[in-house]
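ARCHIVE ENTRY
Sequence with per-residue tokens
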Amino acid sequence: MTGLTTTATPIPSSPAWGKCMALALAAWIASSSGSPAHAAHAIAQYGEPKYPPGFRHFDYVNPDAPRDGTLVLANPNRLTSFDKFNPFTLRGNPAPGLGLMFESLTTGSSDEVASAYCLLADDIAVAPDGLSATFHINPKARFTNGDPVTAEDVKFSFETLKSPKAAPQFSVYFGQIARAVVVDRLTIRFEFKVATREMPLLAGGMPVFSRKWGMRADGTRVPFDQLAFEKPIASGDYVIDSFDNGRTITYKRDPNYWGRSLPVRIGTHNFARIDYKLYSDATARLEAFKAGEYDVLVENVARSWVRRDIGKRFDSGELIKREFPHHNGTGMQGFFMNLRRPLFKDVRVRQALDLALDFEWLNRQLFFNQYKRTDSFFVNTDLQAKGTPSEGELAILEPLRKKLDPAVFGEMPKQPDTDPPGSLRANLIKARELLAQAGWTYRDGALRNAKGQPFVFEILDDTGGGASMEPVAAAFGRNLQKLGITMNFRTVDYALIQKRLDAFDFDMTSVRLPDVQVPGTEQVSRFASRYADEQGSDNLAGVKSPAIDAILQKVVGAQTREQLVDATHALDRVLMHGYYVVPHWYSATHRIAYRNTLGYPATLPLYYTADEWVLSTWWKQPAGASK
């Protein structure tokens, strides 16, 4: 069971990227700003990229995979319809799979945490001072209309994405890129406001599209934020073949795709066609899969995996269930509180709410003991803070001591548990004490503040996706009721909840922040004070902390892996002590059910999402092939 994914528009990630109304930014970090200027086929966070010049393909692909057949998929997220082909704007619902059409100057590999290999570019040079990076575009690179990809197109893409006509997240991610300069027809230089390790990789990961996208026959242009069903002119290996009524869309491989022989493309995108069918709700979607209407189900609901993903096609072997391990940081999923509401301003109130969630009961009764409790914003990685602050962390935290809760300098918070000797009763007693300290006492049948106002709030959830939080919220609400708190649970359509989250019109909601392997600019967009009041931003909780702002600068400015780890530990420590979220749970495996006509590489990637892995490296088995 998962929560609603956060609202932002994604930026390129490895191995592919797409608009799924979720931030999927992999904060790629480039070479040291103090290193000599160099030109290369790839750049890496520290040291050298895993794959040397002249490599043939990534290790986790099958270079001999069949390249034919159709892959049929269902809704990859909770959207049940679409009304545009532009994944870069805030308004409207984009079609699934649009990421198949867009490429960037570089792309990452899925067995390294931070690397960027040439894709549209064929050469990368980082300046000695780290304040610029120059990319030479492969002269073979072509858009789907046959036009060559030029430096002017890259500049146009950059300036469009940073403009008010694009979703505001792009101006955040690319905000430290001062300008894009056309050096010549095939050379583009990005100049940076600051020299950080991630800047060249953020620039290289920017999606590129043609200046002709949206041009009318008379030479006038459709405003970028009004592009709807104008088909994108991009450089990817798929194009839109057909679509129907905002409910189905089919992509076909571009027979003239320019990059099929590139090392980063060998063994990838093996299907000739990809169909998406959007179902009205989770039940219809599951029953359609069991009836054989589509090929792959990525299961996020533990109960469904055990109790509902069964039937005659599973029994016969036509449908297969398997759990695939991954090494991703699992991100933060939880009930996010909106600190713009006065109710949640006091950290003691937020901590009390955390104490009322009985994870152990939920894991036994609802999740079949398939999960672990989330206790960090960087869980399942070495970036998770533990114990007391290290010397490196203290060097960051001590100058901020007056701005921080003294508890930050002690042990990391431990999530409450109810396994003996712990108990829900003990947790609720502690919660009651914290609430009393914050001015909330029980009288006249409810928990009330000094003005007599009752403690009442709403959890906002969407109606689809198969991962409804209603059973969890009901159990949470029963515990809160024992404290005199009234929690109302409300469900609305996914498209409406997206608009409400963009406008920060909620009390509490269930969200999952996508994981990152190398924290960077995306952390700024999530927690920096300057984005707390910018509608549509990723600072969903409304965090405003000068101390966190200072630590974020340490994160994005880290020059060594050790500095990055210390800064991220400090950030994690302060965020967890802030109790902005009632953390949920995580799993270190992907649960995938699939038709037995599909194949996948023997070597699994390390860092990957299930949907993108299927799209990028699986294939259709030839008739008669062994399963």
